[in-house]
Known about the structure:
It comes from Streptomyces olivochromogenes. Helices cover 34% and strands 18% of the residues.
Amino acid sequence: MLHDTWPVDGRVMCVDEFGPLNLMPRKGKAWGPVKRPRRLQATYNRFGGVMHMLAPLDLATGKLYHRIRPGKRWREFLGLLKALHARWPKEKPYVVLDNFSPRKHTKVRAWAADSDIQLVFLPTYGSWLNWIEAEFAALRYFALNGTDHRTHEERNAAIAAYVRRRNARANPKTNFAPASPVRSWTEYLAKAA
């Protein structure tokens, strides 16, 4: 599996988008002060538009990188690929991702092929195989739950602070889903071949 056996000529990154990030109160758990429960505003009006976070998880270091943009179209994804290519110019990126249509755009595929970037698409309905999904669950829990950000800048700063704290303690990602029956089945098939 690409998650465990990294290619010697490159770097494996799991990429996905997180969002939509709109300005609305997010429920969560917290210690409540005695006799005065914490209140969140009503969500009738959601001003400020919607943003999306595109993020790669570098399996070799365990670090999460992110970009927050107003859309999640092919142009934003191509910009992310170009940034990854610029960050590690001497290594071939192996990008693990789901089958979201902007990632399969002809311009994205052409640029990736010309730049020697390997796009590794997961099977349909197999987005849970993308390791970054677990990181998004932690991001939601530790950075967004129980918040009521008034501006996108305030929310983006909270996300960036979480990513900095998380990356300071990051370790390489190994042993992806070791007890999964799917994993044992794929290993069985590999041995049988």
